[in-house]
C-alpha cells in the first residue's frame, strides 16, 4: 500500500506514463528513461537554448532571406521586406501567413518561454489564473510552424535557377533555421514539473 | 490518495494539454475520453488499433515513396521548364553552400517522416505477432523522440505559399507527387496526432501480459 499526494504524480515526457516524483533521480517505470534528471540545472538548460535562439533571431531579420538574381541585377529581401513586398503586391493571405510564421510565432514563443522560465522561479503576483501547462502546450504546438519561411526559400531556390533568373537562399535562412531549431530545443528542455499549481 | 502498488498508476492518466490527473475508465469501442478541465482528448479506444495502425503506416509509406519519386511541381518560366522533388529541395540548398539548413531540412522533411512510418510498420508488426517485448519498447521511445521533429505538413503548406509567390511569373503544373504528398500528410496527421503513443503503450502492456499468462 502506498500513500501519496496527488501533486506527487508526474508524467513521463517520453511515454506519458504516470510516475511518482521521487526527487532527484526519476526513472520512468514504463519506458526506463530518466525524467528531467538535470535537477541542479532546472531552468538553465532551457535558458541557454532560448538565449541562443534569440541571438540567432537578430541576424535572421537583418540579413537577406532570399536573393533574386535577375539579368545580372542582384536583389536581396529580408523577412520583413518580403512581407511588405507581398502586401504591396496584393497577396494579403500569403503576407499574413509569412508574417505570422516568421515574426509573430517566434516572438510569441520567446515571450511565453521567458514568462514560463521566470514565473516558475520567481512567482509573479496573481498569475494563478493563467494555465501554464496549457500555455506550454500551445508553445509546443505552434513552434514548428515558423519553419514555413525556411521551406519556402528552399523550394524557391530549388525551383528557380535558370540562366538569367536565379533565386538563392540568403544568410538569414541559416540564422532563422538555427533560431527555430534552438527554440524547439528550449521548449523540449523545459521541465514541466516546475509548474506547480495544485 | 492510496494505491496498492506502482502498477496501479497505469489506471491514471495526466492530460497532455493541461496536466490534470484523471482516472482511466473503460469506454466503448470507437469512442474517446476527453479531459473534464480543458476538453483535450485523453485517449480513444479502438479494438482494432494494430490493424488500423498497420494499414495506415503501410499506405503512408507507399504514398511517401511516390511523393519522392515524381516531381511535386512543374513550372514554366521564360520558356524553360523546371520541377522539384522532395530530395531536390534540400540538395539544392547543399549546392548553394547552405549545409546547416540543408541538413536540417533533410531531417525534417525526409529522414524523420520516413523513419516514423518505417518504425510504425515494424512496431505494429511486432505487436501483431506478439514478439519482441524489449524491441517494441525501444521503438516506442525512439518514436516519441523523433515525433515532434517531423514536419511534412508544414512543408506541404510551404509549397502552396511558394507557389502563390510565383503566380504571375510562371505557369504552374501540379505533379503526381504533390497529390501523393497531400495523402501522405493526411495519413501522417492521423497516425501521429490521432493515435496517442500512450494508447500504444497500453496496448503493448495488454498484449505481453496476456502472452505471459498463457
Provide structural commentary:
- The complex is a heterodimer of chains A (198) and B (214).
- Chain A has 198 residues and is mainly alpha-helical.
- Chain A folds into two domains: 37 residues; 153 residues.
- In chain A, the strands form two sheets. Chain A has a three-stranded antiparallel beta sheet with strand order 5-4-6. In chain A, strands 2-3 form a two-stranded antiparallel sheet.
- In chain A, α2 runs antiparallel to α3.
- The model of chain A has no long low-confidence stretch (mean pLDDT 84).
- In chain B, strands 7-6-8 form a three-stranded antiparallel beta sheet. In chain B, strands 2-3 form a two-stranded antiparallel sheet.
- Chain B is an alpha+beta fold.
- Chain B folds into two domains: 45 residues, no CATH class; 167 residues.
- Chain B contains seven helices and eight strands.
- At the A-B interface, β1, β2, β3, α3 and α4 of A face β1, β2, β6, β7 and α2 of B.
- β1 of chain A pairs antiparallel with β1 of chain B, so a sheet runs across the interface.
Oligomeric description of these chains: heterodimer
What is the count of helical runs of chain A?
6
The secondary-structure element order of chain B is EEEEEHEEHHHHEHH
Total number of domains of chain A: 2
Low-confidence stretches of chain B: none
User: What about the largest sheet of chain B?
Assistant: 3 strands, antiparallel
If you average the pLDDT of chain B, what whole number results? 88
Structural class of chain B: alpha+beta
Major sheet strand order of chain A: 5-4-6
Shape of chain B: elongated
End-to-end CA span of chain A: 24 Å
Tell me, briefly, the overall form of chain A: elongated
Alpha-carbon distance between the termini of chain B? 34 Å
